[in-house]
Write a structure and sequence with these properties.
This protein has about 375 residues and is α/β, with parallel strands linked by helices. The chain has two domains: about 230 residues, Type I PLP-dependent aspartate aminotransferase-like (Major domain) (Aspartate Aminotransferase, domain 2, 3-Layer(aba) Sandwich); about 130 residues, Aspartate Aminotransferase, domain 1 (Alpha-Beta Complex). The protein is about 40% helix and about 15% strand. It is built from 13 helices and 13 strands. It is globular and about 65 Å long. The chain binds pyridoxal-5'-phosphate. The site of pyridoxal-5'-phosphate has 14 residues, from helix 3 and helix 4.
Length: about 375
């Protein structure tokens, strides 16, 4: 049996929506991007949404819009996808990593507190795997110290933290829509904010620095081409119209896994904190340290089971080691977690039979590793 790690959930509604755009004259900068932005802002409950062509470009614009630059520090997590720290480097902002909570796998607010200096301008928490970070504590720290929060909700569309939607809690927030995400536009992302001014800056910067009243060849500021196209936005609108169904399907798959894996020795299923509604991006288990995770991964991959070691710590990436001199032992919780995690196949249409195949093989392989 071949069980892929992830699969997008594309139906007739998505195909029709994209086809409609293709039959129109507007493939870019038309009405569908604006419609998508309105729908997603309404879903999250924020004033403004600015669609862009990836989560990474959105993070970059957020850093620029907040005016962060050389000499500034931003406190963030080393247990994330590399883009959540790279966006700081684009603008020569110093990423200050702090270790994570071993249960939620999110940035530990107590450690953030001790890393705040006169140079700190921003906290950049990531809702890892769709589990919201401790936003109450982080928001208090930000308020007390006059810091911005960029909420990297790229993996967490639909998650809730004490009733608040992921993407609604930072000065600026991001979703990403790569095909393995809860909602996809192919490539794409969206910036969320309650600030009309910040949203306006982002709209200009995503469009080569053109301001609202500018002529086509007039560029009021430094800009980029970070625009989302109309086909992607159409896909996003169709996906968003059935977001409740999509999130429920993912929740049901996670529940099946939890039930099937709960009795398996040496395996810990994902933790969900009280007051949190997880939005399942990936399904990541943890092994007892005595189990050779890499060998398990190799063995089950050989049996057609898609799997991946989510995440390799950012500070141990070759570029970060070279540039900043990081090494093993710098962030022990992150490193211990990263050495023992495994993402299993996870998508909306995973069947009980496929889950059975994954779990049966996993159990067999663990016995030998
Ligand atoms: C936490 C996090 N931040 C940022 C990104 C970047 O998004 P994109 O791949 O759309 O550039 C991702 C995407 O995987 C992510 O998981």
């Amino acid at each position: 049996m071949d069980v892929p790690l992830s699969l997008p959930d594309i139906g007739e509604r998505e195909r029709e929506a994209v086809d409609e755009v293709l039959r129109s004259r507007w493939l870019s900068m038309g009405p569908v991007v604006a419609a998508f932005e309105n729908k997603i802002a309404e879903y999250v409950g924020v004033r403004q949404a600015v669609a862009i062509n990836s989560g990474t470009s959105g993070l970059h614009l957020a850093v620029r819009a907040l005016g962060l630059g050389e000499g500034d520090e931003a406190i963030t997590t080393p247990f994330s996808f590399v883009a959540s720290a790279n966006c700081l480097l684009f603008e020569r902002v110093q990423p200050v990593f702090v270790d994570i909570d071993p249960l939620t796998l999110n940035i530990d607010p107590e450690l953030v507190k001790v890393k705040i200096t006169s140079r700190t301008r921003c906290i950049l928490p990531v809702h890892v795997f769709g589990h919201p970070a401790e936003m109450d504590e982080l928001t208090n720290l930000a308020r007390q110290n006059g810091l911005f929060i960029i909420e990297d909700a790229c993996e967490a569309l639909g998650a809730k933290y004490h009733g608040k939607q992921a993407g609604s809690m930072g000065d600026m927030a991001l979703f990403a829509f790569y095909p393995n995400k809860q909602l996809t536009t192919g490539e794409g992302g969206v910036i969320l904010t309650d600030s009309d001014q910040l949203a306006g800056l982002c709209r200009s910067m995503r469009n080569q620095g053109r301001d609202a009243g500018d002529e086509w060849y007039e560029h009021s500021r430094l800009g980029y081409n970070y625009r989302m196209d109309e086909m992607s936005a159409a896909l996003g609108c169709a996906q968003l119209s059935r977001v409740t169904e999509i999130l429920a399907k993912r929740q049901a798959v996670a529940k099946m896994y939890n039930e099937r894996l709960s009795g398996l020795d040496g395996v810990t299923v994902p933790y969900v904190a009280p007051g949190v509604e997880m939005s399942w991006f990936v399904y990541v288990i943890r092994f007892d340290p005595a189990i050779n995770r890499d060998l398990v991964m190799k063995e089950i991959a050989g049996r057609g089971i898609g799997c991946r070691a989510y995440f390799q710590p950012i500070h141990l990436q070759p570029f970060y080691r070279r540039s900043f001199g990081f090494g093993p032992g710098d962030f022990p919780v992150t490193e211990a977690v990263a050495a023992t995690t495994l993402a299993l196949p996870f998508h909306n249409h995973l069947t009980a039979e496929e889950i059975d195949y994954v779990v049966t093989n996993l159990a067999e392989v663990i016995g030998q590793c």
